[in-house]
Design brief:
four-stranded mixed β-sheet, five-stranded parallel β-sheet, Rossmann fold, 16% strand, alpha/beta, single chain
Length: 585
């Protein structure tokens, strides 16, 4: 028997009553019901034990079934191998021997040690020489059966398992929805208010329990029910118990967020992301839905929010992600950022989810899956998503649809408590009929025209170029197109950057002011070209103010003082004229 052998199994413990039992107990009950007498279990390091016989004399049971009287407490390969022939040929009441953790009996099934080879040779001989004999009132034929419990069938030598007419392979699958449904009500009875819960509440909670545990084992469901009991949760709060179990965190940071802070956040966000009022309102709507849970179904684990931020470079897309992170978690560096230009190769998905088994670094896990396991409550930013290989984009389908991603190690990582943000420059340029890259939108057009053109190009890219319309469909109407930095917004950005730069000089002992004349010249130089957005303005402020100011202050030879920038001189490099201001006596 292989597969899901370490899980609890659904078993009818009484007429109409289904319980969750370990596989060994299910086998013991089923075998004895079918007419077997003794059911003996062997496990490495534990030796022999009798199932279903609390007061049984293990040595006596072993002796009458041809297993001798020696009960090894180590691996016991030689003892087990030597006993298999005498067990299968025993003429007493039919018995079954369950070899549990049989995968641990060998180190490498394709390269057996001499002791391992001898044991499986003895097992193969016993297998082919075993004879059935009638037993019971109906005189049905029985073998003394040996059941090997392994994680994978390949854990045993191929020459023992393949084309063996005396051996049957029984795979045990993970529990499907009907199996989970048969146990859901019984497990919910462990919650404190279950005895008094109404039938409709129990039915609704049981359905939610089944839907939310898709991909989990019965052991997980049992643990979730126990967690709910320990936490004092009610039956209709089973979804919260599932969430806590999946992400491994008992507290819910979304419920701890100060709602007054969110309600007054529009001014805070606009102070950092200028000229994008529509984007600010849209992203705050997503945040408010995440906090309130409006429209969030208890039967799925989709991320708390998803947004696709598109538009020209330097207009505040990444800054908006930082601002939202700062708003939610109090630290803008708390967001998880991936520069997707680093994932342009086909095999780069292994960096996100981890290398598959057998490859170098398999045990390390993936950057994305590890980050979400450590911080399930987070803002995840995938920057410049269009630069990623299409195979990488396929990984986002299950993230956006089910909120789950399976790592290379086989671990399921849940995104149900995260906000997922994508940024892209798609639609700003397009390819013409000749294959040349030309500008698709310009700052001379209104924001409505820019939005229409950008969205059209995004649709074309995902549907025709990538042939992956399903990704865009899962994002839905949360494609937010940022506007160009218009002149009046550029003025505000310029003033803010200059003020911040001069303020920062105070921390190093200099009190710097600037005359209106010098500031006018500086503004003309910095705002001459707005094609690179706010980032371009910042670069110009650094080139025409920060660099010449640091040069002039260094040349004074002083480590502090009060100065005024009188004028700026342009040329190959910009230079400034500083005047010392007298301190009032």
């Amino acid at each position: 028997m292989s597969g899901n052998v370490r899980d609890l199994q659904a078993y009818e413990v009484a007429p109409g009553v289904v319980g969750a039992l370990p596989l060994s107990l299910c086998l013991q009950r089923e075998l004895q019901t079918s007419g077997y007498g003794d059911v003996i279990q062997f496990a490495p390091m534990a030796g022999f034990d009798v199932l279903g016989g609390a007061d049984a004399d293990v040595a006596a049971v072993m002796s009458r079934n041809g297993l001798g009287g020696e009960n090894p407490r180590d691996i016991g390969l030689d003892v087990l191998g030597g006993m298999l022939g005498s067990f299968t040929s025993s003429s007493t009441e039919p018995a079954a021997l369950i070899v549990d953790f049989a995968s641990r009996l060998v180190n490498r099934p394709d390269n057996l040690t001499p002791a391992e080879h001898v044991m499986f040779t003895q097992a193969q001989l016993a297998c082919h020489t075993a004879q059935a004999r009638p037993s019971g009132a109906a005189r049905k034929p029985f073998y003394n059966t040996v059941i090997w419990i392994v994680e994978r069938e390949s854990d045993l030598p191929d020459w023992f398992t393949v084309d063996n007419p005396k051996l049957r392979s029984i795979p045990i699958a993970a529990p499907d929805s009907s199996t989970r449904r048969s146990l859901s009500r019984a497990l919910l009875k462990a919650l404190p208010d279950a005895p008094t819960a109404a039938d409709d509440v129990m039915d609704k909670s049981a359905r939610a329990f089944v839907n939310l545990t898709e991909g989990l084992l019965l052991t997980d469901m049992n643990a979730i029910a126990q967690l709910g009991r320990n936490e004092g949760l009610k039956v209709d709060q089973i979804a919260d118990a599932v969430r806590r179990y999946k992400v491994g965190v008992t507290d819910d940071p979304w419920r701890m967020i100060d709602r007054e802070k969110i309600s007054g956040a529009e001014e805070f966000v606009r102070s950092r992301v200028k000229g994008q009022d529509h984007a600010v309102v849209h992203i705050l709507d997503i945040v408010k839905r995440a906090v309130t849970g409006v429209g969030r179904s208890s039967t799925n684990g989709r991320p708390r929010g998803v947004a696709f931020l598109a538009g020209p470079t330097g207009v505040g897309k990444t800054e908006l992600a930082k601002t939202i992170t700062s708003l939610l978690f109090g630290d803008e560096s708390a967001y998880i950022r991936f520069d997707m230009s680093e994932f342009s190769a086909e095999h780069a998905d292994q960096r996100l989810i981890g290398a598959p088994p057998g490859y170098v670094g398999y045990d390390a896990g993936g950057e994305l899956t590890n980050a979400i396991r450590e911080k399930p409550f987070s803002v995840v930013l995938f920057d410049e998503i269009e630069k990623a290989h299409p195979r990488i984009l396929d990984k986002f389908l299950q993230v956006l649809d089910d909120g789950v991603l399976t790592s290379g190690r086989g671990d399921r990582v849940y995104f149900s408590e995260a906000i997922i943000l994508f940024t892209s420059n798609l639609g700003i340029y397009r390819t013409d009929a000749s294959g040349a890259r030309i500008q698709n939108v310009s700052s001379d057009e209104t924001h409505e025209v820019v939005t229409a053109k950008v969205r059209e190009e995004i649709d074309r890219h995902f549907k025709l170029t990538l042939n992956r319309p399903e990704i865009l469909n899962r994002i839905g109407e949360n494609v937010i197109v940022f506007d160009f930095i218009r002149p009046q917004i550029a003025d505000a950005i310029f003033d803010s950057m200059v003020a911040n730069l001069l303020e920062s000089t105070r921390s190093i002992g200099f009190d710097i002011s600037i005359t209106d004349k010098a500031k006018t010249v500086l503004k003309e130089m910095c705002l001459r070209d707005l094609s690179n957005g706010g980032r371009g303005v910042r670069n110009m402020v650094e080139a025409h103010l920060a660099n010449p100011l640091s040069r002039a202050l260094f040349d004074t030879g002083e480590v502090g003082g009060t100065f005024r920038i009188e004028e700026l001189s342009t040329g190959a490099v910009t230079s400034i004229t500083l005047e010392r201001e007298q301190q009032p006596s």
